[in-house]
Every structure is written in C-alpha cells, then in structure tokens.
Amino acid sequence: MNNILKLSCLGASLAFSPLGLAVDYSDDIHKNDYKWLQFNLMYALEELPRAPDDPSGHDYLEMEFGGRSGIFDLYGYVDVFDLTDHDGSDKNNRPKIFMKFAPRASLDAMTKTDLSFGPVQELYIATLFNWDGGYSKESDFPPVNNSFWGIGSDIQVPWFGKVGLNLYGLYDINNKDWNGLQLSTNWFKPFYTFSNDSFIAYQGYIDYQFAADDTFKGNSQANHGGVMFNGFYWHSNRYSVGYGFKLYNDVYLIEDSDSFESTGISHYFSVTYKF
Questions:
Q1: Cα 123 to the center of its chain, rounded Å
Q2: Confidence tier at 19 by pLDDT (50, 70, 90)
Q3: pTM higher than the cut 0.90
Q4: CB 134 within 8 A of CB 166
Q5: CATH level 3 topology of 3-274
C-alpha cells in the first residue's frame, strides 16, 4: 500500500478545506467537556506482522474510551487477547495485554486564545503511548514500550468533517533513544442514516512512520512504513457491529520478508456495547 500517495491525497484535500471553525475557550474551558466508553468484542484475521506459518487469527476484548476535560483531549483503549486461551490463536503464549493511551493538551484552551487558521480548528501538544504486558525484556517477544511527542491539530476536511492530525517524534523507552517521526490521522464519518436514526459510518486512521535510520541499536529496519485502517460500522445508541481491514507497509519499521511478513492486509470483525 502506497502510504505516501494516501498522505498526498489527504494533503490535497486540506488545501481545499474551508476556514477552521474556532473553538472559543475564553470564558469556560470546560464547556465542551464530554466522555464515552465502549467494549468491543473482536476477532482479528491474519494480523501483521506475522510469520507465514503462524495460526490465522485471535479473539480479543477491547475497552475503548475517550473524551474532553478542560485542556485535555483523550483517546485510548486496552486490549485483552486470546480470551479462550486457544492453542490455535496467534496470540497464544504471547503478551496478553496491549494499551494505547493518547492524551493531547489544547494550546487554545491553555492560552484561552483562538489559534485557528485555514482548515485548522484547534492546536494541541500531542502525545501517544503504546504499552503491552506479560513478558520481560529478555523474552522472545520483548515488550512494546513506546512514546510519541509532538504537535497535534483538529482540521476540517471536505466530506469527512473534523479530522485529527498529529506529527510526532518516536522515543523508544526500552532503548532510551529517538527513532524517526510519525504522522497520524483519524476520522469518523457517518454517511448513511436510517429512519430509526441508526447509521453507517466510515471510520479509521493512518499511522505513517518516516525519517528513521536504516538501523536502530544495531538492528536493521525500514526507514518508513505504516498502516491504514478502514472500518465500516453500523451504529445505534447502544450497539455497533462492523468490519474493518488494515493495509500494512513495513509496519512498525519491520522490513517485510519471506520469513516475517510486515506488508499486506488483515481483517477485523467487531460487536460493540456502548456505555
């Protein structure tokens, strides 16, 4: 999958975006507060990266959450893999838990100043943390312990509406060193509404790593790569059901090879209850 082409298309759409819709925090930084929580029961088929002879998939439970409180904008989730401890799962005898935690601090709210311009609605100090658990650093599956630091924004894009766009530097906490940059974007676009007010949405994200060296701590790696998730979900007030697919290209800067695949496609199926 050509990630550069996808990002170029995104950039072109931004160039024709309308003026940003400013968020006014001059009187009360908590007036736009909200929060949400949902549980997703999911199955992943041929998730990458993977060895060609690995089992085909795994089940997992995901607690997904987000919201806004004053200066803070938050998104995150916790995944618990291989719920049935099945020998045929590609997560069997591997890290049991993965967590993504992505707080952003609004520069507009902190300064009580309208910093919007063009299609940019709001600016943030953006962070992202990826962690997994259950294994030591010396195991065959060393733990994920990454942090990302940078600048974020909410932008208005034709048809999509508000889209998050963040540029980070990746700091590998295990290795105590920086390892390139990451551009991330995410969207949620309802595009068909039924008579009972339930709807179908196109939702997804792109994480694209670049500007990395060919080696990191003595190990060969790709200098760019990424993933794009495309999901199509039916939503009601309490439930959602959907399917999504991920397109990978040297994901996590792992070079694709015959013995360990990091480029390709995987499939996801989900049933959700919203609190």
A1: 18
A2: very low
A3: no
A4: no
A5: Outer membrane phospholipase (ompla); Chain C (2.40.230)
